[in-house]
């Protein structure tokens, strides 16, 4: 038997249940989970406020780190330290908010030796995605000499890692947050200035004064539209989230008059080679970056409440599950 957070049709939607081994998915690798992350997508699934999960009952959780317990795959042996993000796990396939899960070997990544399960999930999908944004901007040619960069949803998982990573790369980082009280923390992550989210929420003009060479946007909606209008000539924007909405009420002006690039970032379906490369780059970041991160570790019983708080924008940093 092992415990899991299970979503049901009936209320209460999210309940902690005991599962026998034959109730787990019939997949080749069994992982004993040491840490999982609670992500925005998980919060949408748990609260039912987003169409993330199609079939109930369902175990959510889009990422986890653990140890292989049993394996029918030649690629993994019992005891191997692994992690998993994406591939529709926690959306179409049962996920990581559980003590134990069975998964396909091709979804797993061998955990770099210098990364503990806790460190791996302190990054989790959020850290992986933030690094993908940094790489996307770098690959498009963005350098610190070109001017300041701006990060929205800065106290969130993706945003707070993006602030730290960009600051460490030598960028002047501006953070946008709805939480004025987190200004000091954002500055400790490397933000040189913190702007209130409300300054970016009203409809602006198609082109505003140029301010930013680069941007990581977790918000979407009007916030992203306003960022696009404020980009420098040849500015680059990594669009990664929709915390403010899935629409994009903009015009072609930033693209055709300033040559602005809008770069899409997805962490779910990236290929195994890029995935391993990103995880190694994360593992090679200095340990002190973890010390700056706000980490809250909770048990299975607290997840439903933390998911509500996350959707209401009351969570800063990363929420981890210790399922034991
Ligand atoms: P979090 O909940 O940790 O962070 C989201 C942050 O967005 C909040 O902390 C808050 O930061 C800000 N926010 C909340 N409500 C609003 C709002 N109405 N308008 C603008 N900003 C708001 O989530 P994650 O960091 O895990 O994810 C951030 C976004 O990125 C989500 O939309 C998620 O779905 C997406 N994502 C996409 C991935 C991909 O592969 N493309 C992978 C991972 C995440 P503050 O108070 O500081 O403004």
Automatic annotation (TrEMBL):
Q: Which GO terms describe its molecular function?
A: oxidoreductase activity
Alphabetized UniProt keyword annotations: Oxidoreductase
State the Pfam families in the record.
ADH_N (PF08240), ADH_zinc_N (PF00107)
Residues in Enoyl reductase (ER) domain copies:
8-321
What are its E.C. numbers? 1.-.-.-
What PANTHER family would the database entry show?
ACRYLYL-COA REDUCTASE ACUI-RELATED, SHORT-CHAIN DEHYDROGENASE/REDUCTASE
> What protein is this chain from?
MDR family oxidoreductase
Q: What is the lineage of its organism?
A: Bacteria, Pseudomonadati, Pseudomonadota, Gammaproteobacteria, Oceanospirillales
């Amino acid at each position: 038997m092992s415990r899991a957070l299970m979503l049901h049709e009936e209320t209460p939607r999210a309940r902690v249940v005991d599962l026998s081994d034959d109730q787990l998915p019939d997949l080749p690798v069994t992982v004993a989970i040491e840490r999982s992350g609670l992500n925005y997508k998980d919060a949408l699934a748990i609260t039912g406020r987003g169409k993330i999960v199609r079939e109930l009952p369902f175990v959510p959780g889009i990422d986890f780190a653990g140890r292989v317990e049993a394996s029918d795959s030649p690629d993994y042996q019992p005891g191997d330290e692994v992690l998993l993000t994406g591939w529709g796990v926690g959306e179409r396939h049962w996920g990581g908010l559980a003590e134990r899960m069975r998964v396909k070997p091709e979804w797993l990544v061998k955990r770099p030796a210098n990364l503990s399960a806790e460190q791996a999930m302190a990054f989790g999908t959020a850290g992986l995605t933030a690094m993908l944004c940094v790489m996307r901007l770098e690959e498009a040619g963005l350098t610190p000499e070109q001017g300041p960069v701006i990060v929205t949803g800065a106290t969130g998982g993706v945003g707070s890692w993006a602030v730290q990573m960009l600051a460490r790369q030598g960028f002047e980082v501006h953070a946008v947050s709805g939480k004025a009280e987190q200004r000091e923390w954002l500055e400790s992550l490397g933000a040189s200035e913190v702007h209130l989210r409300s300054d970016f929420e009203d409809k602006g003009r198609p082109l505003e004064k140029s301010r930013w060479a680069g941007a990581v946007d977790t918000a979407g909606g009007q916030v992203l539209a306003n960022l696009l209008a404020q980009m420098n000539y040849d500015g680059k924007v990594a669009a990664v989230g929709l915390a403010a909405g899935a629409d994009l009420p903009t015009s072609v002006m930033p693209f055709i008059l300033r040559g602005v690039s809008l770069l899409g970032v997805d962490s779910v379906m990236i290929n195994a080679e890029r995935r391993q490369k990103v995880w190694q780059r994360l593992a090679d970041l200095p340990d002190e970056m973890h010390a700056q991160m706000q980490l809250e570790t909770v048990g299975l019983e607290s997840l439903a409440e933390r998911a509500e708080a996350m959707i209401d924008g009351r969570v800063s940093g990363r929420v981890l599950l210790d399922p034991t």
